TrEMBL record:
Keywords: Signal. PROSITE patterns: THIOREDOXIN_2. The keyword Signal applies. PANTHER family: OS07G0260300 PROTEIN, THIOREDOXIN-DEPENDENT PEROXIREDOXIN. InterPro entries: AhpC/TSA, PRX-like1, Thioredoxin-like_sf, Thioredoxin_domain. Residues 13-171 form the Thioredoxin domain. Gene3D superfamilies: Glutaredoxin (3.40.30.10). This is Redoxin domain-containing protein. It comes from Imperialibacter roseus. Pfam families: AhpC-TSA. It comes from the Bacteria. Residues 1-19 form the signal peptide.
Amino acid sequence: MKKTACVFFLIACLLQTTAPVYSQTISGDINLQDVSSGKSFSFSSLSGAKGIVVFFTSEHCPYAKLYEKRIVTLAAELKGLGIHTVLVNPNDGILSPDDAVEKMKGKSYPFPYLADKQQQCVKMFNAQKTPEVFLIKASGSNYELVYQGAFDDNPMSEEEVTETYLANAARALAAGKAVAKKMTRPTGCMIKSR
């Protein structure tokens, strides 16, 4: 009896630790202001892209600031692979004056920098932190989530990075290969959701 109970316990443990097939859909689209151009932006405007990197950032979070140069460098490489990048600032300019649209306009990025002051995009992705990245690809009228989490494994020092999570996932997507690591835990400042 004791032996049978142990066998059932082990089987139950194995079943619980078996990871489910990773599959998540992002439904719908967005319509947000690109503070750089003043124009409205939607994911559907990038139809034909192999993928889209959605990078949640902030002007006040020290962790997000550490990634400004890294995201610009990676975005240039990924654009050549057919993957576009957009930055999304979800913070309220009243609660966080550094994140006001006027402050955002002071930045010059070679890709859209979106003001998500009503947190439309935050809710769509269930983003929790800045910085936090999502890699998506079109799937019919929706988007498939390919990767979610941290940009890489060392926010403090680019020179000491040993694993480039987002870059690895994006390169695999562009090459039509399976993404090995689909989710990691981001490090940064909590998004203040309303």
